[in-house]
């Protein structure tokens, strides 16, 4: 297909496709003349993946390029690619009391050791968790009530996250599932959590009829 048809199928404007080609986010098509190229369904799928990573995952172009480079390797390392996808979705914060942050790092290290989690010492996620715990302390809240419960839930979710990846038969498909699952899974989990919070709030604190309409019984 020509670039115009590729644009129509993928729902991405032609100038944007050309930008992705320049940035290395989309493989070049098969040249049919000095200024014409032919594309196929793999380009359609890649464009849709790039849009998901940009629009839903909010990942930087450089991070997406790195992920896609790994995805295109002949025998991609699933664990490595998942590690590159996940930290990019975890925010970090600057500043704060160094003593509080040190104590938070110690608490995270204790949690990791207690649960036998296999993490590198410089994993960005462990630093991000420590920064959040420190932020709890700095606003006068105690994260301890939530920490173990959240860790329990995180373990169960991670099992299903990786089960989603392991269903695929080859490494390339596994890496694709890992990237998509890491980005869209976070968004889905956030939405489901908010829905469950609204439900629990209605049960715990009561509900006004003008603020929420219960689903009709079948």
Automatic annotation (TrEMBL):
Protein name: MerR family transcriptional regulator
GO molecular function, a single term: DNA-binding transcription factor activity
UniProt cross-references to Pfam families, sorted A to Z: MerR_1
Keyword presence, DNA-binding: yes
InterPro entries in alphabetical order: DNA-bd_dom_put_sf (IPR009061), MerR-type_HTH_dom (IPR000551), MerR_fam (IPR047057)
Gene3D superfamilies: 1.10.1660.10
UniProt entry tagged with the keyword Repeat: no
Keyword terms: DNA-binding
Domain HTH merR-type: 1-70
């Amino acid at each position: 297909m020509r670039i115009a048809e590729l644009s129509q199928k993928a729902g991405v404007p032609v100038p944007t496709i050309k930008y992705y080609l320049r940035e290395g986010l989309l493989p070049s098509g098969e040249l049919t003349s000095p200024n014409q190229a032919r594309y196929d369904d793999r380009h359609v799928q890649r464009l849709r993946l790039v849009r998901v990573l940009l629009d839903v995952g909010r990942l930087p172009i450089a991070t997406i390029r790195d992920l896609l480079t790994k995805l295109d390797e002949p025998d991609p390392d699933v664990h490595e690619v998942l590690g590159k996808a996940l930290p990019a979705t975890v925010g970090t914060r600057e500043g704060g009391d160094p003593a509080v942050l040190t104590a938070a790092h110690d608490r995270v290290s204790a949690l990791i050791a207690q649960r036998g989690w296999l993490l590198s010492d410089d994993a960005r996620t462990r630093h991000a968790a420590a920064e959040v715990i420190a932020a709890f302390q700095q606003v006068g809240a105690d994260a301890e009530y939530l920490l173990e419960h959240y860790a329990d839930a995180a373990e169960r979710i991670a099992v299903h996250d990786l089960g989603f990846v392991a269903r695929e038969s080859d490494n390339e498909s596994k890496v694709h599932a890992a990237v998509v699952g890491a980005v869209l899974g976070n968004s889905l989990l956030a939405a489901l959590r908010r829905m469950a919070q609204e439900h629990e709030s209605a049960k715990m604190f009561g509900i006004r009829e003008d603020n929420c309409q219960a689903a009709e019984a079948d």
